[in-house]
Amino acid sequence: MTTLLIGLLVFLINLVALGLVPERRRPSSAMAWLLLIFFLPGVGLLLFLLIGSTFVPRKRREEQRVAGELIRAGLAGVPALPPSPERPDWLDPVMVLNRRLAWMPAVQNNSAELFSGYEESIQAKADLVRTAERYVHVEYFMLCRDTTSEPFIAALLEVAARGVKVRVLFDHLSTIGLPGHKELLATFDQAGVEWHPMLPIQPLKGQWRRPDLRNHRKIVVVDGRTGFVGSQNMIDSSYHKKKHEANGRKWRELTARVEGPVVQSLNLVFASDWFIETNERLRDYVQTEEFPEDQGDLTCQIVPSGPGFPDENNLRLFNALIYGA
Length: 325
Hints:
By secondary structure, the chain is of the alpha+beta class. Helix content is 45%, strand content 14%. The chain folds into two domains: 2-52; 58-324, Endonuclease Chain A (Endonuclease, Chain A, 2-Layer Sandwich), CATH 3.30.870.10. α2 runs antiparallel to α3 (41-52), α4 packs antiparallel against α11 (262-278) and α5 (91-102) runs antiparallel to α12.
């Protein structure tokens, strides 16, 4: 009897897997998952439920869709760029596709300054934060208070003390285990800095999702006029890994300080993530009708992506750029 029940259970697992696993998945990936589940039903099913889905839960995707529609409606009046002989013919359709899948228009008259020095970049961000008059929006994959990041954290606390609205988002799983995390959040609370973890994994609160689908964005926006974007997390360049520290290994990053209309696109990305985590719409802080005045001669387009976007918009962009090279 026990053998019969086990056999029936395995049959049901395989039947469900045949209907569930191949959905929106490459044939090679689907075949690998099916073989694992067929030969090791218990282990295979557990692994698939844990890391098999390439998307965040349906509720999260719906929140992403709503945020996108709000932004799309707000930007409806921003026209597409006119044709230009300075751009190759294949690039304009790519910009249209980017906007259709990820909301943001390509915009002209921007400027950018690159920073490749790790401490130099953090100091430049701190200096920018200290110029804030209305608000500072901060979003990081990893946010840690240490000797390297102290100038930036100190700047946030300083402007919050004089009444500037400071909002902070950080990826939950990537930040929660960093040194001094609880102490930093307590300091934020005392200073009136509003913070929220992104994609939190808190089973006791009913929040569970695939643990390796994270939010890797690194954004700083001050008053909607100046922003920073790039690859640098707000943490020491060793990432506090003992092997890195022992061998003197340091992470190398590149960030850009941007001004012009593109800053509002960055701000809208932050606003969409803030809305998803808090259900608060930042209408008074994100202006979609009036862009900042001209700042330079760069044409820029922000292309947000992630597991909440169903169409692999970043992959489509990369392929188009490579084929057009």
